[in-house]
Amino acid sequence: QISNFTIQQKVNITTGIGWGNGLCVGNTPVVGDFPGLCLQDSPLGVRDTDFVTSFPAGITTASTWNRALMRARGFAMGQEHRMKGVNVALGPMMNMGRIAQGGRNWEGFGADPFLSGEAAYETILGLQAGGVQATAKHYINNEQEWKRTQESSNVDDRTQHEIYAHPFMRSVMAGVSSIMCSYNLVNDTYACNNNKTLNDIMKREFGFQGFIQSDWSATMDTLGAVTGLDLTMPGDITLGSGTTYFGQNLTDFVLNDTISIQRLDDMATRIIAAWYFLHQDEGYPNTTVSSFDLYNPLNQEVNAQSDHYLIVREIGAAGTVLLKNEGALPLCKPKNIVLVGSDAAPPTSGPNEYTDQGGDPSGILAMGWGSGTDNFTYLVSPYEAIQARARVDQTSVFWDFNDWDLAAAGNSVIGMEAAIVFVNSDSGEGYITVDGNAGDRQNLSAWHQGDQLILAVAAQNNNTIVVTNSVGPLIIEPWVDHPNVTAIVWANLGGNEAGNAIADILYGAWNPSGKLPYTIAKSPADYPAQLVTGGTAADILSINYTEGLFIDYRWFDAQNITPRYEFGFGLSYTTFEYSNLAITKIYPADYAQTDLVQNWEDGGATPIAEGSTTALWLHMPAYKITFDVANTGALYGGEVPQLYIHHSPSAGEPPSVLKGFTNVVVSPGQTASASITLSRYDLSIWDVVRQGWAKPEGTMTFSVGASSRDFRLNGTIPA
Q1: So what's the pLDDT on residue 85?
Q2: Contacts of residue 615, Cβ cutoff 8 Å, sequence gap at least 6
Q3: Membrane-spanning regions, if any (predicted)?
Q4: What's the whole-number mean pLDDT along residues 533-550?
Q5: 635 exposed, middle or buried (CB, 10 Å; 0-12, 13-18, 19+)?
Q6: How far, in Å, CA of 62 to CA of 49, rounded?
Q7: At what angle do helices 7-14 and 247-255 cross, to 10 degrees?
Q8: What is the pLDDT of residue 46?
Q9: At a CB cut-off of 8 Å and minimum separation 6, what does 191 contact?
Q10: 337 near 465, Cβ under 8 Å?
Q11: Cα distance between the two ends of the chain
């Protein structure tokens, strides 16, 4: 395809046309018979246009622990991007929830690399099956918003491989089209200029064949092309500068042999190959997105919504976690109920009150703020959904949406059969500050004095049910053990159908099956890593990942800190019993690289070679674990059995490491069989000396259970 292109044409393929100069947030020009690319946010829908779905956020999707739902959401989003003529969707986001206050954690998949990796893998398979190119972002170590363009995330090699790079590796295994390098520095070198992370880990070790694009104006110089950057976005050095590090500068560097023509060919080939790989050369829809003129009629030309509200509502319910329930739920035709708190209500002036949702929420919180958003076509609040159910049940409904009058709120709940209090907590991308929160959250408390609101209600009603819509963990100690707080429903961020999904949970139309994708601590100080703030305009902050492998629950386990609710925790309206654990070895298929399998079995490390980390032999199932799950309660329900590996102390691993999960649905009195496979990769650690994956010495054991601290079955990996 590019053999007859001039140097300038090849350079043009790699250079965006500049901020605001096209229909999408990123655009590349027409070059010969290549029509150029439209690159568009976001990880939860098509940004800056009309007639698209607002899907549940990444954190809600992760809370389902359900691969089929992750895939279905990706597929629906892929279809919408394609229908709108978007070539490259700027998602999914898979930075780790290392910092509980991290502003963009809600866009990602939580605080565990395995769960994040599975969610990324399924989302990408879905997006690309829908026809759009997916982008794994932000590579790598962009775990906080504060000074994100002026901070060096300092991470050791083993931690990088086992934690932060893992979801990106799974993205490559899913066939992802593009990787987006991040704003920050990694070990004192900018991520978009980082030979180790781009050329060595991503392209050599993971064998990535697609293209690496910059985050918007994250390109630092023309020589980024040598260190692995293939496409500069949106093209200009700073947004709207009209200058570029690529373009003529790249042309000059190729002409004077500073950058080889072979490298330029590689850059252009990767970009065009990805376009062919998704069959975008075959009658792809015209772009009907207008990012910089929202009132352009073009935005309303194509309705891409289809029936995707169905998957939105299902994930909203499946991604809701029941944390506490003392007989309060499900509701059964209550005589009267009262809804308290603005988070139960529709936003005051429509669902899109603020650009990029960047403002203090006046109603239900259904997504965070920043570029990771899209425009709601509509937003169903709990108030509407519960009212509709009340009509059927002939329940009297009362409400008080004023968060600030605690006396009135307390008085409104007297004599009610149930008082449901709704609270939220918001965050987003750092270019918008909301109520003093510069992207990252200033604290882990509910907004709008939510703690006091709950206590005011619980003081006067002995059946107080709390519903949260939060971007991440909250400290709930002020009220979690209050005797009148009878249920806690952790509803995350539900998108368009948020209210309906919450009602489905409250009334038992969906039996809760979600599990926490992070730890809820008793104190902010219990978390292993804290937000790094401060610094002058000129300073590069150092953010040292000193906790290493001990992120989130791994730290709590190792330090013997009791959390309020542990990673992987979630209740049901029924109960489950586990039994009949067995593990069998799976012998490699004929086509496996048996010499490398044997080398691994003998304690050898994976070779230093192209694609060594994504090699098939390393990821093929090596062990099969089977067990039974019985429903010992009275209601049909779903459970998420989780598998944690325990290495011998000499391996230097955390006490428990998630390496598998599956889903079972079981009727009362019935038993379902379940299975989880483990690969050699799942049992390996990164050997920094040999620079490969190796089986650590000593006996490996494992547990299967209902959370990271609720183990029901225990076994040993056969030698």
Answers
A1: 98
A2: 593, 596, 606
A3: none
A4: 96
A5: middle
A6: 26
A7: 140
A8: 98
A9: 138, 139, 140, 141, 142, 181, 182, 183, 184, 185, 197, 218
A10: no
A11: 51
